[in-house]
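Appendix B. Raw example, untouched.
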Amino acid sequence: ATCGNNVITVPITVYQVTGVTASSALVAQGDPLTFTATIDPPGGNPPAIEWFVGDVSQGNFPGNTFSPSALPPGTYNIFAKMGTSLSGTSVTVVGIREVTINGPDYSGTVGSGSTFYVYQGDTYTFTAYPTPWNAPWPAGWPKWTINGTTTTSPDASGTFGTLSSSIGDFKTAVASCGTSSATINAVVFKVNLWSYADPDDMFPDRYPY
């Protein structure tokens, strides 16, 4: 700006986003997730950054970090926008899609909350599958908790040795990946499905699949 021979120079700093990084590119559903934008030049007092999940604006935030609300399983592109500059990265959030069981009386896919009948002492193998389809598992997931014992693996085996005291006394196998989970309920009895009830059988009116 000038006034006669006086010249006043006002410095103007133009900021831009040059990159975005994620605290992890692969997380279990519900795990904390933070994105950090690289601003050039560093320091100073840059304007707020507008953050996007996909093409949906999440609003303007001061500073250079963004922590979205819990995202359901899926792969997401996350963008940071400042003026005309735009940069982004991707992240995959993983959950439990389905589980299967393999054992003496039943093998196949079971829905969460399903009930099946198990002969006391039988051993089953349980397998969890991720969503999104074919996504890798995040470190430390999935976990199986069977009869109170927790194993970190997509596959786990469990032996049901404790009898159910009633038709509603379930022995459970639970697969989890963060806050995503699937529960299988087992009713454990003493006799084979096709034989006569044992005197100790508490629920002789049960029926097979």
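End of appendix B.
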